[in-house]
Amino acid sequence: MTALYSLRQVTVRYAARTVLAVDELDILRGEILAVVGPSGAGKSTLLRLLNFLQPPTTGEVYFDDALYSANRTASLAMRRRVTTVFQRPVLLKRTVEANVAYGLRLRGERHGEADIRTTLAAVGLTELAQQPARTLSGGEAQRVALARAMVLRPDALLLDEPTANLDPYNVGLIEQIVAQINCEHGTTMVLVTHNIHQARRLAHRVLFLLEGRAVEIADTHTFFAAPTDPRTSAFVRGEMVY
């Protein structure tokens, strides 16, 4: 597979503090890449970089061969090809259907009713379409956030702890939807998770970040069964790695 993202000699610094330093990283088209590591490892910074919300201090990020750097901003067309689902989704004080339609309306697409209905069905929310979003459970709200992202048909979907604080039933639903999106649409996904079991279930490859650096990246089986770095081995065993 070819790369959708390519990072080369990328750093992100806040004042004198380097929070991310990635010499080389390719994220392949159509893959689910799980990003794991302890708190403060640089996972959220990496997502902001990939969503063009955080420019690199140095280095180059290529998205489908288009350059994003400290001196080159991402175009609106590039930004619209990437969508993020956050751990705590912010929903409008409107119906479920209106929330899913929101991104399409912002883009001036007034005739997406069929896509909205199909997407609501895909996440199991058809019967809740006219329900106010404020009345939803946590799992239902997260499915609305996923549907709102899905309906835009992004090339890259970035997931920031999408099942944190959900019960096992809703975790299973969200994981099933994520796998379905990837399988049916070939959407490239970057999943930040503290749940290494989730990474094992969903990802094609796993990236381990520690202190802002990429310690190891490998296909999922190799990452868990035969990691090459002792810090990765310790992390997989559940030991504290700092």
Structural class: alpha/beta
Task: Return Rg in Å.
Answer: 18 Å
Report the principal-axis shape.
globular
Number of helical segments with 4 or more residues:
9
The number of strands is 10
The averaged pLDDT comes out at: 93
Distance between the termini: 33 Å
Estimate the helix proportion, in percent: 25-40%
Strand content: 25-35%
Order of helices and strands: EEEHEEHEHHHEHEHEEHH
Tell me about the largest β-sheet: 6 strands, mixed
What's the short story on this structure?
The chain is α/β, with parallel strands linked by helices and 242 residues long. 35% of the residues lie in helices and 27% in strands.
Give a description of the structure:
The protein is an alpha/beta fold. The protein has nine helices and ten strands. The strands form two sheets. A six-stranded mixed β-sheet has the order 6-7-8-3-9-10, with helices on both faces. Helix 4 crosses helix 5 (138-150). It is globular, with a radius of gyration of 18 Å. It starts with a strand and ends in a 6-residue tail after the last helix. 37% of the residues are buried.
